[in-house]
Amino acid sequence: MLKSIVLGLVFLSLLVVATGYAGSFAGAAWSPWCLAIGTCGALMSLMALGSVRRGHITPVLRVVFVAMFLFCAGCFCVALAMPANEGAGGTLLFGFPLRSTIVLLGVAIVPILVFPLAWALTFDSSMLSEDDLKKLREAQAVMARANDVRRHGAK
Q1: Residue 51, number of CB atoms within 10 A of its CB
Q2: For every one of its 155 residues, what pLDDT tens digit does the chain have, with 9 covering 90 and above?
Q3: Dihedral of alpha carbons 27, 29, 33, 38, sign
Q4: Which of 16, 37, 95, 119 is least enclosed by beta carbons within 10 angstroms?
């Protein structure tokens, strides 16, 4: 059930991205907003899809994915909403134009710091259990036998 909901979010995010691309060809002013929000939604929902284990996502990761979506999309939206004044007298932050710095920090630097911490906090609950490893080994053995039969014929 949860996996289908997350897949729906992936589809919805990609639909927003596609709408943004279509709007950009038409010269629509709203298309960068769709691209910014849809891209962040696609990234976070794909990460959520990858973190589904045994039909659920660890509550810590749910909070992290939602918070990072809001943060990253918010940084994009703030940068889009700000006036373009990156000329010779434009505002600088850390030596970069302000809008570029907001996007760089909000979409690259902060996630690079947050996601490894979230993974470390949920490491034990995210790893395969002994039952999962046993099923994996059994499936691998069945596949190996099937490949041997296919290569060498039934003996």
Answers
A1: 20
A2: 888 999 999 999 999 999 999 999 999 999 999 999 999 999 999 999 988 887 888 888 899 999 999 999 999 999 999 887 776 777 777 778 888 899 999 888 998 999 888 888 877 766 667 888 888 899 999 999 888 888 887 55
A3: negative
A4: 95
Give the chain's count of helices (H) and strands (E): 7, 2
Structure tokens at 39: 């891209």
Residue 93: beta bridge partners? 96
Query: Which pair of tokens denotes residue 102?
Result: 């907001």
What is the spatial distance between Cα 126 and Cα 58, in angstroms, rounded to a whole number? 8
How many C-beta atoms lie closer than 10 Å to residue 82's C-beta?
Answer: 14
Amino acid in position 101: T
The C-alpha atoms of residue 73 and residue 102 are separated, in whole angstroms, by: 11
Report the SS3 class of residue 92. strand
